[in-house]
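I keep forgetting this: the sequence line spells out the residues, with the fold written below as integer tokens. I include a record here:
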Amino acid sequence: MSSADTLTRVHIGEVVRNAIVFKPGNLQEPSANSDRLIETVARFFSLLRERQIEYVLVGGIALLQYIEGRNTEDIDLIMAVSSLEQMPELLVESRDEDFARGKFSDLKVDVLLTSNALFDQVRKRYATTQRFVEQDIPCATVKGLILLKLYALPSLYRQGNFTRVGLYENDVATLLHAYNPPVDPLLDELSLYLSESDAGQVKQILGEIRQRISRFEERR
């Protein structure tokens, strides 16, 4: 039985709500605004379905379909610019070539744009339908999530973002340990989208992660 088989169905609205309510430094009783987030999340995904907008769920919420993960305050999607324009209710606050960030009412939404070749590849080849409490949702596969996490790591290292580096590396390690997908084909694919130096760094990171997994297995 895989790890996914042991997980209860994910309620996206409650995950986002709880991440905000129980955020360190923000401990408080659930407010009307945080409770309303559950309805906002359901409405957001209903609009995507009603308008037949193509997207793939990624990020922390997608991760929860496969492993027990951390709380997350936002929704992460892969989406084309043309699809983004079909959701005028999603107010875009910032955007560059690869990413857009916006809000749907009080809900934070991060969009990975398909103008990035890897993001588009994950959307096309590494997506499956997963059942959430809200509805059935197109979601990245284990391999798709690993590709996205590894792709982001060299940039996070350059930014000196130690916290996110640790989170992403742990996400990759947990997925690899739980599902044991073939790693070399993922490295080969990533090399098509990374510079030679970044691809080398990712290979080194993966080697260190695999050593951690081996040490863990030896002590069991």
Notes: The first strand starts at residue 56 and ends at 58. The mean pLDDT is 91.
